[in-house]
Design goal:
This protein is α+β, with helices and mostly antiparallel strands. Helix content is 29%, strand content 34%. The chain has a single domain (9-101), classed as Roll (Nuclear Transport Factor 2, Chain: A), CATH 3.10.450.700.
Length: 119
């Protein structure tokens, strides 16, 4: 089985987004034409402090650029139209923290007020 050898990067952009990093790399084919690789790299930390990265990659060739761009635009427009541009998970975290801080804690029994008769 032949191993895919990555071509040298011609142009590269990096988008850091929390635990995820996106790499947009322009590479050259053997025929010296260009194509795009988009890589999502996500960091996972283990309980012992060690970590690993999980990567997902797509290859996008020039003949697909127009259709890909159109579909991406339609999909992102749909999401913003339906749900707005606020990130719901961030809003959820804020709401959760607000609930957590306003939640009343039931008083616990003071153990110094116990008598041996209670045991």
């Amino acid at each position: 089985m032949a191993e895919r050898v990555e071509q040298e990067e011609i142009f590269s952009q990096v988008l850091r987004a929390g635990r995820r990093t996106y790499f947009f790399d322009v590479r050259a084919t053997k025929a010296d034409d260009y194509y795009l690789t988009v890589t999502e790299s996500k960091k996972f930390t283990h309980d012992d402090g060690t970590f690993h990265y999980q990567k997902h990659k797509i290859y996008l060739y020039k003949e697909d650029f127009a259709d890909f761009h159109e579909m991406l635009q339609k999909a992102t427009d749909y999401i913003v139209t339906e749900k707005g541009d606020e990130v719901i998970s961030e809003r959820h975290q804020k709401d959760f923290k607000k609930e957590e801080s306003t939640e009343e804690i039931a008083p616990t029994q003071n153990f110094t007020d116990l008598s041996f008769d209670d045991i």
